Amino acid sequence: MANFANDGKLGVDIAGSDGTARHRLGTTARAADNQVLIYVYANEAIASGTGVELATSFTASASSGGELTAIYAIASGEYGWVKKADLTVAS
């Protein structure tokens, strides 16, 4: 996954998590490889590649599956980006 956004939003840094909010929770961005990203707050530590469950307030917790995945580790109490699952189109 490319670690930069290409949709024109300023200040989008998807290289890692941060202890300070840099965007409004729920902000979306599109990565250079066309992945849809969502800015969240981690209620608990979330390992890289782990499924993410998202509350309506855009607070995230680790999950065993779903359509969201952590693209890097996010410590509890930090902010970061998660990606939506890739779309699979049946032929």
Q: Give the termini separation.
A: 25 Å
Overall pLDDT level? 83
Shape, principal axes of CA atoms: globular
Biggest sheet, open or closed, and with what strands and sense? 6 strands, mixed
State the secondary-structure class.
mainly beta
Radius of gyration: 12 Å
Helix content: under 10%
Percent in strands: 25-35%
Order of helices and strands: EEEEEE
- Low-confidence runs: none
Oligomeric state? single chain
How many domains make up the 3D coordinates?
1
Could you describe the 3D structure shown?
By secondary structure, the protein is mainly β. The chain has one domain (1-85). Helix content is 0%, strand content 31%. Strands 1, 2, 3, 4, 5 and 6 form a six-stranded mixed β-sheet that branches. The mean pLDDT is 83.
Key features?
91 residues, mainly beta, 6 strands, 0% helix
Give a short synopsis of this structure.
The chain contains no helices and 6 strands. The chain has strands at 28-30, 36-42, 51-54, 59-63, 68-70, 79-84. Strands 1, 2, 3, 4, 5 and 6 form a 6-stranded mixed β-sheet that branches.
